[in-house]
Write a structure and sequence with these properties.
The chain is α/β, with parallel strands linked by helices and 387 residues long. It contains 12 helices and 18 strands. Helix 1 packs parallel to helix 9. Bound molecules: flavin-adenine dinucleotide.
């Protein structure tokens, strides 16, 4: 049901129209809430980021609820095998669709890779069409709305000016590792295959995209990332060839590799009176396991459910903050533990990995448990999944 358009000024202000703020504005508009969505970037700028996201089943369910999943059908690239390898111990674990929980299995993918550009194109097109959304894109600070709103949501990214103006502190750990992303054409990967390769310098993810291209997310000490980002195309592909699994060859570089620092960050509170932080304004984690955007979208799901059941106000903000903390903390700790456990050659840890990975390779319940925590979120493990 689509509620009639509002006749008053928007009661919810969402600051930041990245993938989190845009999806939240759309989800609230679906409920008939009137929303103002503001961002200093224009619509073309918001779509221009060269990045691909690993989409889990928790995100799939939210996109289905919001009637976006089918429209993204042509651009979602499913992967049906996840090949996890540890260079330090020589261990290997293959995750397949049989390791998913039954309700997820019928969707015939462990996960999907989604390019930022078609995602943002669709979100912005739907927002423009919605009678409940007022779009304020390309506004500089002076043009941003200062009128008080009943409910303010900060979705303005990791350096969130709104979080800072509210005086909310963050707990953070800066990794020595940085992360380099690049799009490449690869030869020799089995169709439907994705890799998570643990190497002593850091994890390397190889994620399938359309037309035989792959997104590489390559973690290593920050200086190595910067040096590799500066290499000429041929030299970069040569360097990449030395770390890919045997039989997989890079053929072509499709964009300029970009290096980013990596941080684990969690805001001490996700609320400020009746206002809240969502997405990377409130938290960040290491990209191992591709959890980042999925965590942000679980914020969106929790907040929209709470707004639907008890309206907007300080109680909703307080409940939202309490409900999101356990998920954010567990995923943050798990990704951090993975990085610490695998990014080294310490003999004791290598010996532990030599025990752990064969157990995982042999035990289907253990693989199912890991995959469920990754794709449904740790709080859904052992609990019924929604339709
Ligand atoms: C190298 C790298 C690889 C990644 N890979 C993955 C992956 O494989 N899978 C995955 O799920 N996630 C991944 N992530 C994480 C993912 O990119 C983020 O989770 C996602 O971008 C967060 O979205 P967001 O909307 O919360 O923040 P952002 O995308 O940062 O958007 C914030 C928005 O707020 C706007 N803004 C800034 N200041 C203001 C202001 N004062 N007022 C209003 N608006 C403002 C900005 O212009 C921006 O549009 C990766 C991140 C990095 C860095």
């Amino acid at each position: 049901m689509v509620a009639s358009p509002p006749d008053t000024s928007p009661s919810i202000h969402v600051r930041g129209a990245g993938p989190t703020g845009s999806l939240l504005a759309l989800a609230l508009a679906h409920q008939g809430q009137s929303v103002l969505l503001e961002d200093p970037l224009t619509a073309p700028e918001l779509q221009s980021r060269s990045r691909a996201y690993a989409i889990t089943h928790s995100s799939r369910r939210l996109l289905q609820r919001l009637d976006l999943w089918t429209s993204l059908g042509d651009v979602l690239v499913p992967f049906t095998r996840l090949d996890l390898r540890d260079a330090g111990s020589g261990g290997r674990v293959l995750f397949g669709q049989q390791d998913l929980r039954r309700r997820n299995r019928r969707h015939q993918a462990i996960g999907w890779i989604l390019d930022h550009r078609p995602l943002m194109r669709l979100l912005l097109a739907r927002l423009e069409k919605s009678p409940h959304v007022t779009l304020g894109l390309g506004r500089d600070q002076d043009q941003m709305t200062r009128e008080p709103a009943a409910f303010v949501v900060a979705a303005d990214g990791p350096s969130s000016p709104t979080r800072q103006s509210w005086g909310i502190d963050v707990v953070q750990h800066r990794y020595r590792q940085g992360c380099l992303t690049a799009k490449v054409v690869l030869r020799g990967v089995e169709p439907g295959g994705a890799y998570e390769l643990f190497r002593p310098e850091g994890p390397l993810a190889v994620l399938p995209m359309a037309d035989g291209s792959y997104q590489v997310v390559w973690s290593a000490p920050m200086q190595h990332c910067l040096d590799r980002a500066d290499l000429a195309d041929g030299a970069f592909l040569d360097a990449l060839a030395t770390v890919l699994p045997e039989g997989v060859e890079p053929d072509l570089l499709l964009d300029r590799p970009a290096a980013f620092p990596q941080t684990w960050m969690l805001a001490r509170s996700l609320r400020h009176g009746p206002a809240v932080l969502v997405g990377e304004a409130g938290h960040r984690c290491h990209p191992v396991g591709g959890q980042g955007l999925n965590l942000c979208w679980r914020d969106v799901e929790t907040l929209t459910d709470l707004v639907a059941s008890q309206g907007i106000g300080p109680r909703t903000a307080a409940r939202y903050s309490r409900r999101r903390w356990p998920d954010l903390l567990m995923v943050g700790l798990a990704t951090d533990a993975l990085v610490r456990l695998f990014s080294n050659r310490h003999p004791l840890l290598v010996a532990f990995r030599q025990l752990l990975l064969p157990c995982l390779a042999l035990s289907s319940p253990l693989r199912r448990l890991c995959l469920s925590a990754m794709t449904d979120g740790p709080l859904r493990v052992g609990r019924p999944l929604p339709d």
